[in-house]
## 1
Amino acid sequence: MEQNNGVSRRGLVQMAGVAGAAVAGLSAPAIVKGAPDQLKYGFIGTGSRGEYLLKHLKSIDAGRCLAVSDISQAHMDSSAATIGSNPSKYRDYRELLGRNDIDAVLVAVPLFLHFQVTKDALLAGKHVFCEKSLVFKGQEMAELRALVASRPKQVLQVGLQRRYSEFYQTVKSMVDRGILGNVTNMSAQWHRNPGWKMKPQPNLADQKMANWRLYREYSGGLAAELASHQVDVAEWMFGSPPESIIGVGGHDYMFDGRDINDNLQMVYKYPKKQKLVSTYLCTNTHLSMFGGTRTEFAEKIMGTEGSVEITVGDDTQPVLAMWYREPSPPPRVEKAGEKKAYAAGATMVTAGAQKGVPILLDRDKVQGNEGFAEKEMKFARQWLYSKGVMIPEESRNPVDTELKSFLEDCKKGGKPRANIEVGLNDSATVILTNKAVDEDRKVLWSELEGLQKAKA
Ligand SMILES: NC(=O)c1ccc[n+]([C@@H]2O[C@H](COP(=O)([O-])OP(=O)(O)OC[C@H]3O[C@@H](n4cnc5c(N)ncnc54)[C@H](O)[C@@H]3O)[C@@H](O)[C@H]2O)c1
């Protein structure tokens, strides 16, 4: 039998089946330009992220951009050219919200404006996609929750794109089905070198606006900009926000006028005793996962029977997920009537480190009903993946999936995966992360109540 560091080809097929069963296969998007049922949307905040999202929206035919809004004419002009639908341009976003022919808005303004713009858009009757982190201050949470609850026909989605990744969804299913055993820990890092650079401006007010994420007045710093994605993954995998947070951080290396911390080292504890250890640095990008083939950011999910390393990647490097089985897992205690999640192959290694195998999606899973050639093709792809010659890829970038999903949910009244509760829990964890570091103490989730009531 062919071997792959202790995992047989048959073992890989079993693994593929277990992992892939979790997610309905997505086919490549069919682009039918000018489809009659396109959702009409506007875009508010057309800076770096806005422009990026518009670039992706351009190839998603479920919607049409009728207007853009930004206080910067240059950003509006550039983004209008990017989307190419000849959108109207508004310096005041409230004029865009006043248009009755616009059903939805996407919001990518700086964090300190998320709440106000999202609130105004909901009150104007629009569906809203707002970038993470959803809110800036604890006091904004209750009002936004109540507003969304009072408008059940309007969609609110948060820009946490990992929730829309087939791989992340598969890993979540592996966790829930016990395939990694008892999942006790996660680690995560998002390191940059250097961190964001200050873009100097002639006066301080302009400098602060152009570099808003470097100033605490407007930004939640590394916690809001980077950790928000990874604490969301932990909350999703562990099924709960943390009950306590400790950490150290500092403004230690980057002295260009910024006042945010340039490093954070955090430990989050969850109700079932799981922990997330995560770090955010601006002085080094090395990533020890994936055999050093990626840099900067990834998460590792660890259980008594295996681990998964996963990264969402970017436009040039796709999502990657590797599965490592524990060499000598403790005997599994099956509860009465519980089905085994999978049959462990006789060829599993019994000692020593083992090479990870890529997690496979539905299209690479042998279903049993395919023809000979297709089955052989799937075996061949799996074999190439296991040898590291090919990497399995999502059928669509998760950013495309989150955007298409938003437009479809607006049209059909669907419920977003990254909904208001996901977004508020995520924001709350970000706010408490900064509190733990600022006050140099263990912060409890229960302190949120006081923060929500505190005066702005
Ligand atoms: N999901 C992700 O992976 C991801 C990645 C990057 C950024 N983001 C988020 O996107 C948001 C924007 O980040 P960015 O990097 O694009 O920042 P940016 O500074 O490049 O862009 C912000 C834009 O908002 C505009 N703006 C400011 N005030 C405005 C107002 N009153 N009305 C309309 N426009 C206004 C600015 O002129 C600017 O063009 C942030 O919340 C950030 O956290 C998310």
Note: The pocket of nicotinamide-adenine-dinucleotide is lined by residues 44-50, 69-72, 75, 93, 108-111, 113, 131-132, 159, 161, 212, 225 (CB under 6 Å).
## 2
Amino acid sequence: MSDTGRLNIPANKISTVEVKVGEVFEERTLTVLGSQVKQEIADRLKDNLRALGRLKENGYKVGRLRPKRFVNSIPLKQCGVTYGLDFARNKVRIQKLGEFRVLGIHQIPPGAEMANAVLVRKPSGYYLHVTCYLPREHFLRKPVGEAVGVDFGIDSKLTLSNGIKIDFEVHETPRLKRLQRKLHRTKKGFKNGKKVWFLLRREYERLNNRRRDAQNKVLAFLRLYEKVVFQDDCVKKGWAALFGGQVHSSGIGGLKSRLRTSLEVPVVVGRSEPTTRECYACGKQHELSLSDRIIKCDCGWECDRDVNAALVILERGLGLSRDQAVGLDRPELKPPEREAAARLLGSNPCIRVSFPR
Ligand SMILES: [Zn+2]
């Protein structure tokens, strides 16, 4: 890192590296990395440096570069060379490392065309992330509805314009809290402290997995509509834009940014639109306090405030005039919608769904 001139040495030819041990450098031989893998790691390092350079140019604070003790992910770019899968024996072969038994290989559908993979180390173990290509037919699903409006409430709540309410919250487990307390108590540097720290990281990983699963299921359900309309709030620029959803990976913020990227036709309504205070039927603005759960208008319209907001969002997103939107306000929850919601969302204990009466 301190000698950027070395970045141009062909990495695949490097067979020894210098490692700082105390105050002196020791020469070590690289034994288990294939030449392609070495090249990929070097390329990735260069990409990262370039990205950091761009950030610095744009006025972001970039800290001092520090050496890294570990690499937690190793790119394996060429299926058949750097890695190979044996479906019949549940095994994976990694260049120069040998063969390993793997779980979950059945998740790759037959006929998939394998591309690159990444070997990842997580607190819970080692994983191989495989990218594969499937024919388009594999992803075609029959839509359950034409368009749906989504109102994002505070505290992890989604209200759809058809009256479905989805509430998901992945709480910290008692075990996590216990481990946090324990880590706080153990003094730094103790052997026991290291173990607690490791267990804590594993528990965080599990929590993130649960959160991700809940998000995945909500996304899978919304993807069954041809159009999804939601209101965008301030999109954070900079880090969030560069690194996708990783910065705010939990809860609603993460779900929103994933909605934006994963739906084929996300329709977004600008954040300045006053959707929560507007009567859907006549457009009159109302003063609502947070405790008002129902919007009641002089025109005779009476509706749950969140459903009302979702309807306004839907109407705006589709660009409908008030006359064209007739009928949207009497949404019927069709049996396929109800069935799909129960099937996809009901399988996660952290998600609560309620249907309109
Ligand atoms: Zn009204």
Note: The longest strand covers residues 113-122.
